């Protein structure tokens, strides 16, 4: 008896923690706009919200069903509209919303409460939902939460049931489960975070979904107006997500195909195929190395004066750039190589300071930095681009200078000149292309990656067409 009570308390605590981390609710106008893009209500088509929260999607859907078929009996209503919600408090809120709606449409009190109770199930769709296709439309705003952040009890249950491609994020889990219960002529219509569309870690998920689904509608949403109760944040502050509205349909391949390849919500239609050269064809693009905590493998001028100059290379970060111009380097990186122990002065410095190294930067060979860089070509000038920026702003680096801290390091390859590459990166159309394809961050910033820049078209004619 005590063990059962303990398990019950543990589960309730896990569900409460999950709800606190994921309770983002969608504003009514956004819900209505998404429902405008689905084929429902029609005939016997069944609609489900697998994580219905306080019932906004269910309520707006039920309004449409009652408007189309006002004389529908209670049993049929509960059969054609269904919601699942793991959090008991949110399930009560959803039932209350539906009960009030049914009362407004002429149902009497006990009947309205009974129908609302039948529509909203207080249960976990991921573990207790149906195991066979039975819905024609899945709608809603499923939770987005990295799997390691899911409470342990629930994470164990999900890991035992869900395939590998559905276990990076709860959003992935709900996408996979919705696809598995969809009828052959079904639709999935969601407000979701955008990352599953282009993150490399979601590639297999996209590929699996693409075996039966394609994207019929895709648009970015304004984070400031999409949600009316953003997580556990201060009133009026937006959540740290970049929402999209997406509608996927089965057996319809006349729009955006779902494959392992990234899809960029900045483009409302099927991305055009790459033609001609890309930046990856004419330049080497790599991440600048992270050399660990300051004062160990990256030192200031005072420490550098005590070390052999042959083992030091000027190092720069974005704080060395002022008004778009590189300033005189103030730091030096210690150059070491595998299997060759550096001079005693270098070893003495490292041994005196390695205790301050962040755990993720520690190596078995004490003289090696967290990321080796001895093969990076520093014998030619290069371009530095900040990995987090509002736009592409290439800054020229002279030969012999090492960029650090995972910024983007670009050198010319083949017959292309660094001047031509710099001109391309500084162009308005290249910046428009990046803004359409890069992952947005806070306050107008974007995440600029090597994968993204390697795909940047460098044929100006193609680029101009791509952004018009």
Please, could you describe this protein's structure?
By secondary structure, the chain is of the alpha+beta class. It has 2 domains: 248 residues, Vaccinia Virus protein VP39 (Rossmann fold); 189 residues, Adenine-n6-DNA-methyltransferase TaqI, Chain A, domain 2 (Alpha-Beta Complex). Helices cover 35% and strands 20% of the residues. The protein has 18 helices and 23 strands. It has an 8-stranded mixed sheet with strand order 4-3-2-5-6-9-7-10, sandwiched between helices. A hairpin with a 5-residue loop joins β22 and β23. The C terminus is likely disordered.
Uncertain ranges: 268-275, 460-468
Q: What's the CATH class label of the largest domain?
A: Alpha Beta
The total strand number stands at: 23
- CATH architecture group name of the largest domain: 3-Layer(aba) Sandwich
* Rg for CA atoms: 27 Å
The overall average pLDDT, rounded, is 89
Assigned CATH superfamily of the largest domain: Vaccinia Virus protein VP39
Which descriptors would you attach to this protein?
468 residues; Adenine-n6-DNA-methyltransferase TaqI, Chain A, domain 2; disordered C terminus; alpha+beta; 2 domains
Task: Give the arrangement of secondary structure elements.
Elements: H1 2-22, E1 24-26, H2 28-35, E2 47-49, H3 56-68, H4 74-80, E3 81-84, H5 88-104, H6 109-119, E4 120-121, H7 125-128, E5 135-140, H8 152-161, H9 170-180, E6 182-193, H10 203-209, E7 213-220, H11 223-226, E8 227-230, E9 243-250, E10 256-257, H12 279-282, E11 283-287, E12 298-300, H13 301-304, E13 312-316, E14 321-322, E15 325-326, E16 331-334, H14 344-353, E17 382-385, E18 388-389, E19 395-397, E20 402-403, E21 408-412, H15 418-426, H16 428-437, E22 439-440, E23 446-447, H17 450-454, H18 460-467
Parallel strand pairs: 2-3, 2-5, 3-4, 5-6, 13-20
Antiparallel strand pairs: 1-8, 6-9, 7-9, 7-10, 11-21, 12-16, 13-16, 14-15, 17-19, 17-21, 18-23, 22-23
Helix pairs in contact: 2-3, 3-5, 4-6, 5-6, 16-18
